[in-house]
Design a protein that fits this description.
- The chain is built from 9 helices and no strands.
- The chain has about 140 residues and is mainly α.
- The longest helix is centred in the C-terminal third of the chain and has 18 residues.
- The chain is elongated, with a radius of gyration of 20 Å.
Length: about 140
């Protein structure tokens, strides 16, 4: 019975907080399709995801698992709205999970990947300015 209720509860909690599946998936560090499977009951989240979900919705894991809370659509739960940084994170994850990009950047560390992701989004003039700045910083380190 509870296995059937968890997907319903996840969808309800997400909608009450005004989150999209993309936002929740990005917050959990998973792809949207995986999160969608949690809401449809095709997959069951592992303990690490359950802890993240509980934190996202500011409830205990026990409440999430035992389904002891009733969701009231008329109550504002003061959850933070999706921010630009969460949209950036979703874009970043989508970009680097793309098989074409994954191969190209597989040997880079996370900071290098983040730099390259944003570097591709700026103008050529800004790119030149950043390269000059980086050269200055690199020479100061020596």
């Amino acid at each position: 019975m509870k296995e059937q209720l968890l997907p319903i509860k996840l969808k309800e909690l997400r909608k009450v907080h005004g989150y999209t599946q993309d936002y929740v998936a990005a917050a959990l560090g998973i792809v949207r399709q995986t999160y969608s499977h949690y809401e449809t009951g095709r997959r069951t989240p592992g303990s690490d995801i359950l802890y993240k979900l509980a934190g996202l919705y500011n409830i205990s894991v026990e409440d999430l698992m035992h389904l002891t809370i009733a969701v009231d659509r008329n109550i504002n739960y003061d959850a933070p709205p999706p921010t630009q940084s969460s949209e950036d994170l979703a874009g970043f994850l989508e970009y680097f999970n793309n098989p074409n990009n994954r191969k190209k950047y597989q040997l880079f560390n996370s900071l290098e990947k983040e730099l390259l992701y944003y570097f591709e989004k700026i103008s050529e003039d800004d790119k030149r300015e950043i390269i000059e700045f980086t050269k200055i910083k690199a020479h100061k380190k020596r």
